[in-house]
Automatic annotation (TrEMBL):
It comes from Streptomyces chartreusis. This is Uncharacterized protein. InterPro entries: DUF5999. It comes from the Bacteria.
């Protein structure tokens, strides 16, 4: 039999995809939105930050653990 050292059962999405130095704020940090954007989909209204946070156009966030942060910044006033 092949060696079975693979740690199946502990598989989970990484909390952070951050490869920056110094590391960006974690998703649980109040500064979470200061992390770098690693995937931007403005046509869909969201961006993925390197700490795993989904940042929406309306300034709401979706954290990697599923927690939702309500929009907390005023939208830019329409001209
Ligand atoms: Zn980063």
């Amino acid at each position: 039999m092949a060696t079975t050292t693979t740690a199946i059962g502990t598989t989970r999405l990484p909390d952070s995809l951050c490869t920056h130095t110094p590391n960006c704020p974690t998703a649980s940090s109040a500064d979470r939105e200061a992390a770098h954007t690693i995937a931007a989909h403005p046509e869909q209204g969201w961006s993925l930050l390197c700490n795993g946070v989904l940042l929406f156009d309306d300034t709401g966030d979706l954290l990697p653990d599923g927690q939702v942060i309500a929009p907390h910044r005023p939208l830019a006033a329409t001209a």
